[in-house]
Amino acid sequence: MNKYALITGAGRGIGRAIAQRIAKNGYHVLINYRSNHEEAQRTLDAIVAQGGQGTLMPFDVSDAQAVQQNIEAWYKDHPNDYIELLVNNAGIRKDNLMVFLNPEDFDKVVSTNLSSFFYVTKLIVPEMIRHRNGRIVNIASLSGVKGTPGQTNYSAAKGGLIAATKALAQEIAKKHITVNAIAPGFIHTDMTEGLDEEMLKKFIPAARFGEPEEVAALVAFLASPEAAYITGECININGGLYS
Ligand code: NAI
To answer: Do residues 71 and 124 lie in contact, with contact meaning Cβ atoms separated by under 8 Å?
Structure first.
């Protein structure tokens, strides 16, 4: 029987690194992405090249109906399987000082980074409960812990995600399901592409940005049997920038 893991936003960046890392641990990885089929296929090709298994699963995590249709269809096609590991990784940022921030960019960031957690997780948790086993890892952000100027929308969404992580963890701990968040600082991906790395590095004690594989290694640990007693936590991974 396959062990399934669903990674949202796994077409590139941190999500791709998580997908590749988790596949090494024997999971059949469901690679969610929104629209960039070629990038998602590259994630799948990398998994297959390392001897792993995966399936592409396109849908927009901020669209409750699309989430429901796709996840219900998967369960219908896999009546004897369930998703043991869920990584809510998909995210966007649309930065602006709050006085210039328009309501659309506030709502879009909240729906993609936070409401998506609710839409996806709500459909995955019942089967985890039935099997009395599961791991949920939510990719939050330093912005959700500390708050970042220019990111009131993103900070609110990620802060909400951390609080929801803690609440859900307490609801389902007895069912042997752990729910944790990871709060990365600056990680080398498309999301941080336009930032002034030379300037920002001066504020990071480790004097560098992190790599997606370093976040993926933490996800793999939280998904492992050894991490069964860690739940409701938000773990920083930021080179000492904030604790
Ligand atoms: P990225 O922009 O390279 O990847 C984000 C992925 O999410 C993309 O593949 C994108 O297509 C997907 N996505 C966006 N909206 C989606 C939607 N509605 N439905 C499905 N997929 C969607 O960025 P990165 O850096 O890999 O980000 C991954 C997660 O890590 C995000 O949640 C981000 O907020 C978080 N993060 C990243 C940090 C960094 O420094 N790169 C720092 C802190 C948190």
So the answer is: yes
Residues near 105 by beta carbon (within 8 Å), at least 6 away in sequence: 94, 96, 153
- pLDDT of 1 higher than 90: no
Cα–Cα distances (Å) from 145 to 59, 117, 156, 189, 238, in that order, read 28, 17, 10, 20, 12
Query: pTM for the complete prediction?
Result: 0.98
Q: Over 80: is that where the pLDDT of 207 sits? A: yes
| Mean pLDDT over each residue of the chain, to the nearest integer | 98
Indicate which residue's Cα is closest to atom 10 of ligand 1: 9
4 noted as active-site residue: no
Give residue 16 CA to ligand 1 midpoint distance, Å: 10
Residue 91 near ligand 1, beta carbon < 6 Å: yes
Q: 22-70, pLDDT tens digit by residue?
A: 999 999 999 999 999 999 999 999 999 999 999 999 999 999 999 999 9
Decide whether any atom of ligand 1 lies within 6 Å of the 209 Cβ: no
Ligand 1 site, residue 162, Cβ cutoff 6 A = no
Average pLDDT over residues 164-180: 99
Rg from Cα positions in the chain? 17
| Span 140-161, average pLDDT | 98
Please report the atom of ligand 1 found closest to the CA of residue 143.
43
Closest CA to 104 of 144, 153, 155: 153
Query: Are the C-beta atoms of residues 23 and 50 closer than 8 Å to each other?
Result: yes
CA-CA distance, 38 to 174, in Å (whole number)? 41
Return the ∠ at Cα 48 (arms to 42 and 51), rounded to 5°.
Answer: 150
